[in-house]
Amino acid sequence: MFEATTHHYRLSRTEYDRAVEAGVFETDAKLELVDGDLLAMTPQGSRHATGVDLVADSLRHVFRTGFHVRMQLPLAIDEYSEPEPDVAVVTGGIRDYRDAHPTSALLVVEVSDESLHRDRTVKQRLYARCGIPEYWILAVPDARVEVYRDPAADGYRTVTIHRAGETITPLARPEARIAVDDLLP
Q1: What's the pLDDT tens digit per position in 50-76?
Q2: The domain containing residue 67 runs over which residues?
Q3: Is residue 33 part of a domain?
């Protein structure tokens, strides 16, 4: 009896970028590369979109000169991953990334509803392993912000939960206070 075996092909970021440039994927395909796997991004509902805008707006008030707040744009964080987080704070300005995507971020935020499980597991481990110092999940169904800090190879060591009426202080801006109410859709 013949037994078929399957092999998982791990796509590198270079191969993925070449495929995108060659037009292999539909122009409206919403994909991201995570650990060599192509993941379809879930469609955005209105609460998700509102959350992304609220987070980006709040972070732009805190991270001004010397920083760039990116919305749903790639981070080239390792050889096999090019996620497109909902919001990322990177050093420098817009034109600093004209020729290449940023390879790190000070803060990454995912606004989560249908993607909540993946953001708490797969994405959380990826961002920690790649040394992103701070990762937030705006958990829309739970009306809270989960703050992940102290990255390690297998995930973040510190997790705090913040709800309406509370504030969050970003690691990279210890003088700033962001009201959770300003982030919740």
Answers
A1: 999 999 999 999 999 999 999 999 999
A2: 43-182
A3: no
